[in-house]
Structure formats: C-alpha cells, structure tokens
C-alpha cells in the first residue's frame, strides 16, 4: 500500500513504487520518502545552500544545452525554474531534514524534483508527472549527488565568507582601530596573570585586538581559497561516468561568471569526493576566529566591569536593562552574545571534525551535517562581528580609572631595576604593597634618588615603549 500524505494528495511513482505526495507540493516522491524517513529535527539547509544548489542546476542546464545534450525548450524551462530557486521563491519546498542520508542525495533529489515540477508547471504539464521535464534525466543530467553536494557546500561557504564574513570582520577591525587611535593617549596599568603589570596605553591594548582581526581575515581568506576548488565533474565515484568530457570545465566557467568567485575544478576528484578535508580546514580557521573574538569580548566585559566594584576602565554602551529585580543594572549583553556565538562555532568545529573522519572509500557519509555546521558558523560569525562593532565597540568610552591607578601600580618598579638593581627594586615593591604607599614614596625614603630623578625614571609614558 502507498504511504499517505497529510491532507489532499496526489499519487506518484518512483523507482521504489507508489507514494502519496501533498497535492500542491513542488517536491516529489523521493523528497516525500526522505521527509517520512527522517523525522529527526527541525533543522534544514539555509538560504545560501539552497541558492548554491539552484546555481549548480542552472549552470548544468546551460552547459547541457550548449553541448546539445538537452532539448533547448526543456533546458530553458529548467533555467528559469532554477533561477526561482536561486531567488528563494521555493525555499518552503526544501523539506528534507539535515539528519538524512550521509551523501545528501535526498536534498539533491529534493532540488531536482522542485526544479522539475516548476518547469513542468511553466510548460503546462501536471505536477509529479515527470513529463516533459524529468528530475533525474534532465535536471540532474551530467551530475551525481556525490559531486553536487560537496560542490554546493564549497560554493555556499565561499560565497558566505566573501560576501558576509570578510566584510563584517573588516568593519569590526575598523571600529577597533578607531578606538585604538582614540585611546592612544590614555595610559593605564597592564595586567598579566590578572595581576598588575607595567603600564600600557589603552590604545596599545586595543591594537592587539586589531591584530587578531587582521590575522583572522587572513585565515578566512585561506579558507575561501580552499573552498573555491570544486568537486563537480566526478559524478558517482570521481571517474566522471555519465558526464560529457567538457561538462566540468564548462560548469566551472558558468559558476565562476554567475557567482563572481575565483572558482576552479579540483585536480583530484577522488580526493574531493571521498574527503571533507577542505571543509575541516575551513572550519578550523573559523574556530580560530571564534577564539579570537572570545578573547576580545571577554576583555571588553572585564574592562567595563563595575561600574563601581569592578575594573571600570571603559564604559560600554547601555543597550538594555540588565535585571528584572535590580533597577538601574546594565550588563555587557552584546559582548556576552559574542561569547555564546564563539562557543557555538567551537562546538560546530568538533562536529565537522567528526564528520570529516567519516569518509568511507569513495564518499563521505556526513556531508549534510558538516554543511549545516560550516554554514551556520560563517553566518553566526559574520552577524556577531557586525553587531559587536555597531552595538558595542563604536560606543566605548574610556574612564579615568586606568590613568588614576598608574601611580599606585607596583609593577612600575620595573623601571627602577636598571638603576638600583632587581633585588632592591623588588624590596621597594614589597614594602609599598605592605604599607600602601606608592613606589615613588617608598623610593624617596629608601634610596638616594631625588624627586626629579624619580619623576623621570617612573614616567609612565616612557614605560610604554622600548628604552
């Protein structure tokens, strides 16, 4: 007996037999089987991945027409239907769970069926009839799920890095650099091991954050370059069976023109389809970026802690009330959101690492979950960089707390060591700690140095650069 669909339905037949499909659905029997077989979660592929699938199918229709391998009328209908998928008009028809067949075949067929039925509808045919546009014979011509899905992952991730993550990171870097310049005159006590250290400019501290963003963008750029190498053309196992010899090269040219990405065909299709090494590498770069952002966000939280019982060397923008019970409390909520995004990305990387280990002979069997986590990491990092910049960094203000504490810092005795020796300077720091005096006050008592000499030796700005 055919399985039933909820509500009005139509009867379809595929290679496994008959199946009821929702009457108005643009997906077909293969997608419906997957929908019924994998009722696991509410996780679905995101917009960028569906768009990439549409771009692959549209490019294939154009290449196959150019190669005289596809009827021009059918190819044109597929082209138009694929454009509608690219534009997001049928996102609700992508119904297959992320936790599905490890090759992503169900999602590839979901795409083939949607484009097929949209094309059939435009040609006056009947939904689900597979006539005159067949999902396998026409939409999937020259392709296999085994090269389409890894190609779609790379295409979507490369586009998201180029158009989303890199611009957002550049915006955050610019905001941090502007603050570094604004804060350059402000001298405060440095901290190592959460203990007082020698003086540092607040602007120097922020320049460290700028450097992390600079290197982070280099890492993202390396990931972009590696993800721009595509597996399309390998079909089932990397041999290219069932594909015109010119298909892959022409596909790359079409996709390159369509996306504006510097794409190339892999030099080794067997590597590209049996492993997720490029995706694992890219995720590692994203994890490193997340670790950098975690450090920056936590520093911002600590520097702004207080306002009276904390460090309070900077003021964070007040964006919302911080407590349901304590009136007037304002929390560093933007920085906290950044740290949670970073935790998610670091966790996603662990999932991708496990997925990368799951290549069995000629195919990896965890592609959907690797794709989902990689694309989520890119999108989350892009959004949080942008939000961190606009909602927090550009509104930061320095307070007088940092400069006020410099003279009372014990680590400024470091400047005395070259003059009176390490042990004598250490003794002064120890005595100042016990008595509550400043380094200068103790030095005036226990050394022969004058006030004028100590003013020169203990000048904070001189301690912020080599001397």
Structure description:
A two-stranded antiparallel ribbon has the order 1-2. It folds into three domains: 9-141, Fumarase/aspartase (N-terminal domain) (Fumarase C, Chain B, domain 1, Orthogonal Bundle); 147-185 and 202-239 and 268-401, Up-down Bundle (Fumarase C, Chain A, domain 2); 407-464, Fumarase/aspartase (C-terminal domain) (Ribonucleotide Reductase Protein R1, domain 1), CATH 1.10.40. 57% of the residues lie in helices and 8% in strands. The longest helix is centred in the middle third of the chain and has 38 residues, at 145-182. The chain has 17 helices and ten strands. α2 (47-66) crosses α6 (145-182) and α6 (145-182) runs parallel beside α12 (367-391). With 467 residues, it is mostly helical.
